[in-house]
Amino acid sequence: MSAESMESLASPESPQQRRDTSGGEWSAQGGYGVRFEWGPEGARRLMAGGDADAGCLVVVDVLSFSTAVSVAVDAGTRVFPYAWRDESAVAFAAGRGAELAVGRRAMSSASPWSLSPAALRRAPFTPRLVLPSPNGSAIAAAAGASGVVVAGCLRNAAAVGSWLVEQGYGGSHRPVAVVAAGERWPDGSLRPAVEDLLGAGAVISAMRGVSLSPEAGVAAGAFQSCGDVASAVADCASGRELRGYGFAEDVTVAVEAGGSEGVPVLMDGAFFAPALPLPDCV
Q1: How far apart are CA 43 and CA 27, in angstroms?
Q2: Could you give the 3-state DSSP secondary structure of residue 78?
Q3: Which of 114, 142, 234, 268 counts the highest number of beta carbons within 10 A?
């Protein structure tokens, strides 16, 4: 190792020295119209960049939250994201006059709503639903006060990508932060998940005429080079887990590419599909 390299390791750059040439933090992928990251911390860092204040966050959680949101919103339900499924969620749902979704294996005739997209299709209609999860829902709930948030998945990727461009997002002054929620290892750490990489890549690939950060370009490339997305999702670790627990139908719903034209947008604390373009002030 050279003397210069040794000096670099011994004297790490200060946060100020690590700012990129666009004036934002190095981790915000500043200067690009579309950016890509993983998990809650990735979302926080992308949205903390100075030029991201006018932008949009797309949360992608293919085998749970964002596909469930897509199915529920298609049916006319307003979906409230919430990070935890505990007593505080009960109070949160009661305060909004909403039903509270339970865990997949806790469903019953009294509580038929859960993170299972297939079960949501069969459940009685409810106009308002709280959908807790520690991944996609937690990211959406945390980001809701900082800008426009959209739920993206394989079902609605084409519609979401087109809508973003139509709304004027994807330029350096109105950037899009696409965040793959990922899953959790037993110790709580982030597990990058193939299905979310592919879902994020599908949304990014549907945006035409925009500049991609290297991270976003790699995500788009992963989707475009995957010959059989449905098979990849079904046989990846998360797909095998769901099928092993008896929820193979959820995987089938999740890979319905083009199955939804709805674009779930988070407004006033809940996801719904707006019939009109969003005003600039949102």
Answers
A1: 10
A2: strand
A3: 114
